[in-house]
C-alpha cells in the first residue's frame, strides 16, 4: 500500500534534496574557466547527461550536481563512493515511482497535499525576497550604534529576584507555619519546612535534591517591569518578593494568590545592569537583520496584494464559530503560546525569560 510507505516517502523526499552527488567522479569536478557555459560545475553537455529514467521523468547529471551544491559540506562527505551514490539513486527512483502512483490515485489533489505545497512555495518566495541581505557580521558598525542609541531602554536589565514558596490551602495553617518560616536561617531548614508543609512538595523527595531549591518558582523582575513576568509566579507573589530585604529571608506576612496561601522566600538576587554597546553588539546585529527580513517580506506582500486583488468578507468571518474541542488556540493545550518559554509575538512573559545565569547569587 502506498499509504503505508508514508514514512519512507518523507525520508526519500528529504534524500532527494541532498542525495545526488553524481555517479561520474570526474564529471562532477569543477571545470576549467574556458570550458564554456557551466551549470553546477558542469558543461551543458555534461549537465544534460541522463542518469536514469522513471516513466517520463528524466534524472540528469545536472540534477545530481545541482543538488550536490545545495548540500552541507559535511553531508557531502557521506556520498563520496559510487556505491553510496547508487544507493541514493535507487532511493530517488523509488520516490519517483511512489510520486507517480500518488498522482495516479489523486493524492496530489487532496487538501492537505495542496496546503503542504502552498507552504513550500511560500517559503521559497520568502527565501527569494531575503536574497542579498547581509549577514549579521556585515552590518555596518554605524548602523549598530544608531540602533543601540535609539533603543537604549532595551539594554537596561532591571533587578531580578529568585522566588521560593511554601504553599498551603488555608490561611490558619499558613499563619502557624509562618512563625517557623521566618526563623529559618539555612537552606536546609527551609527545605525541611517545605517538605513537611507545602502542598507542592513531592511525595517522594528526589535524591540529592538541593535544599536551596525547595519550593523554587523561578525568577521575576519588579512589578513595574513588563519584561519581568513569570507564568509560574502570581503577581501578588512577584510583588511580595520585592518587599524582602535580604537573600534567604522570608516575608513576615502570608500572601494569598489564586486561592492558595504563600510563604514567600527570596532565594537569590541579581543587581540591575545596563549592557554596553560591546555587550549588546551581537544581539543588535541579529535584531537589525530580522528587521530587514521583515521589511523585505512586507514589501513582497504589499506588491502581491496590488498584483492580485484581495477581498475579505468581514461579516461572514464574524459568523464563523470554532467547533468545540478544536485545539490550537490561545489557552488550549495545543497552543504554542501555552508552551514554556514562549510568548505571543510582541509580548513578554516567558518563564525565566532573560534571567541571568547568576540569579541565585547575591
Write the layout of secondary structure elements.
Elements: H1 6-18, H2 44-47, E1 50-54, E2 57-60, H3 61-70, H4 73-76, H5 82-104, H6 111-129, H7 141-150, E3 156-157, E4 160-168, H8 171-181, H9 187-197, E5 216-220, H10 235-241, E6 255-257, E7 260-270, E8 273-274, H11 277-307, H12 314-318
Antiparallel strand pairs: 1-2, 3-8, 4-5, 4-7, 6-7
Task: Describe the 3D structure.
The radius of gyration is 30 Å and the shape is elongated. 19% of the residues are buried. It is an alpha+beta fold and 362 residues long. The strands form three sheets. The chain has a four-stranded antiparallel beta sheet with strand order 5-4-7-6, sandwiched between helices. Strands 1-2 form a two-stranded antiparallel sheet. The protein has twelve helices and eight strands. The model is unreliable at 1-37 and 329-362 (pLDDT under 50). The longest helix is centred in the last third of the chain and has 31 residues, at 277-307. The protein has three domains: 3-109, no CATH class; 110-155 and 286-310, no CATH class; 159-271 and 320-362, Chitinase A, domain 3, CATH 3.10.50.40.
Mean of residue pLDDT? 79
Reported CATH architecture of the largest domain: Roll
Order of strands, main sheet, comes to: 5-4-7-6
Overall 3D shape: elongated
Measure the end-to-end span.
64 Å
- Number of structurally distinct domains: 3
Order of helices and strands: HHEEHHHHHEEHHEHEEEHH
Which regions contain 5 or more consecutive residues with pLDDT less than 50?
1-37, 329-362
Which class do the helix and strand fractions yield?
alpha+beta
Structure summary, number of beta strands: 8
Helix count equals 12
Q: Which bin fits the share of residues in helices?
A: 40-55%
Q: Any idea what the radius of gyration is? A: 30 Å
Q: What profile does the largest beta sheet have?
A: 4 strands, antiparallel
CATH class of the largest domain: Alpha Beta
CATH topology of the largest domain: Chitinase A, domain 3
Amino acid at each position: 500500500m502506498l499509504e503505508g510507505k508514508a514514512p519512507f516517502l518523507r525520508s526519500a523526499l528529504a534524500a532527494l534534496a541532498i542525495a545526488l552527488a553524481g555517479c561520474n567522479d570526474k564529471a562532477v569536478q569543477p571545470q576549467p574557466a574556458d570550458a564554456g557555459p557551466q551549470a553546477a560545475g558542469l558543461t551543458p553537455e555534461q549537465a544534460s547527461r541522463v542518469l536514469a529514467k522513471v516513466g517520463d521523468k528524466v534524472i540528469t547529471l545536472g540534477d545530481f550536481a545541482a543538488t550536490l551544491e545545495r548540500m552541507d559540506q559535511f553531508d557531502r562527505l557521506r556520498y563520496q563512493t559510487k556505491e553510496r551514490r547508487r544507493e541514493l539513486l535507487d532511493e530517488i527512483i523509488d520516490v519517483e515511482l511512489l510520486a507517480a502512483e500518488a498522482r495516479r490515485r489523486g493524492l496530489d489533489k487532496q487538501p492537505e497535499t495542496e496546503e503542504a505545497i502552498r507552504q513550500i512555495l511560500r517559503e521559497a518566495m520568502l527565501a527569494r525576497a531575503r536574497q542579498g541581505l547581509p549577514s549579521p557580521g556585515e552590518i555596518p558598525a554605524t548602523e549598530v550604534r544608531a540602533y543601540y542609541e535609539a533603543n537604549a531602554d532595551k539594554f537596561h536589565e532591571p533587578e531580578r529576584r529568585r522566588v521560593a514558596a511554601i504553599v498551603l490551602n488555608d490561611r490558619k495553617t499558613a499563619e502557624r507555619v509562618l512563625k517557623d518560616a521566618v526563623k529559618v536561617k539555612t537552606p536546609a531548614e527551609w527545605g525541611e519546612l517545605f517538605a513537611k508543609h507545602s502542598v507542592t512538595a513531592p511525595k517522594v523527595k528526589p535524591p540529592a535534591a538541593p535544599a536551596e531549591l525547595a519550593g523554587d518558582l523561578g525568577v521575576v523582575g519588579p512589578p513595574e517591569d513588563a519584561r519581568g513576568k513569570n507564568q509560574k509566579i502570581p503577581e501578588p507573589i512577584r510583588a511580595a518578593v520585592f518587599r524582602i530585604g535580604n537573600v534567604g529571608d522570608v516575608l513576615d506576612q502570608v500572601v494569598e494568590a489564586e486561592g492558595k496561601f504563600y510563604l514567600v522566600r527570596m532565594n537569590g538576587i541579581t543587581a540591575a545592569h545596563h549592557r554596553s554597546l560591546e555587550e549588546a553588539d551581537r544581539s543588535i546585529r541579529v535584531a537589525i537583520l530580522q528587521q530587514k527580513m521583515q521589511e523585505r517580506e512586507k514589501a513582497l506582500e504589499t506588491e502581491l496584494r496590488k498584483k492580485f486583488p484581495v477581498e475579505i468578507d468581514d461579516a461572514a468571518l464574524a459568523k464563523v464559530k470554532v467547533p468545540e474541542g478544536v485545539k490550537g488556540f490561545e489557552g488550549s493545550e495545543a497552543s504554542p503560546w501555552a508552551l514554556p518559554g514562549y510568548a505571543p509575538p510582541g509580548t513578554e512573559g516567558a518563564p525565566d525569560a532573560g534571567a541571568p545565569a547568576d540569579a541565585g547569587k547575591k
